[in-house]
What does this fold into?
Amino acid sequence: MNKPKLILFDIGGVLIEYGNVFKTASVDLGIPHALIDSTFDKSDTEITTGIITPQELYLNCLSNNKLETDRNYNFMLSWIKDYTSIKPTHDLLVELVSKYKVGLFSNIYKGMVPELIKQDLLPNINYAYQFISCDMGLQKPDINAYKVIMDTVNYSVNELLFIDDKQENLEVADNLGWETFLFTREKPTESVNELRKLLL
It folds into this structure.
């Protein structure tokens, strides 16, 4: 692999572990976890592309299931409470920023990235680019999201490295000529050690 000029990191499964999402809201509000999950699944595209906010997803869950509970409950903050930082990748990104341009390319929801940085769940560094699905109105693996990146950055495709934990998201990048790295969410330290050998 050639040394890249720009390294783009996915967030969920690479920088953040999200296996316990909606647990806090379910406990706080006494709402079955499955109801929140099913509302998310039905609204996946709308929330991922920024058509609705996390709070609107929550209110839809209440309305669709005829639930009477606190409509002012801050659903996004409860959601973020269920995230944990994947520290090996967190530390790697902090190290890489002194040697490379680094950025984010992630399917994520309105208002979350600034709050994740504020809570130190994402490194507070100088990101060269933030390609966030809710702001782009496009989500991986839609090829148009990747084309927006290529139209935005001043690098050739073989100077881009994209790190993601889902093969279907990497296949599009591979086909466009990017360098890619499949991150193993279940073994983050091993993946980070491989990246260190490649990049440092």
The longest helix spans residues 188-199. The first strand starts at residue 6 and ends at 9.
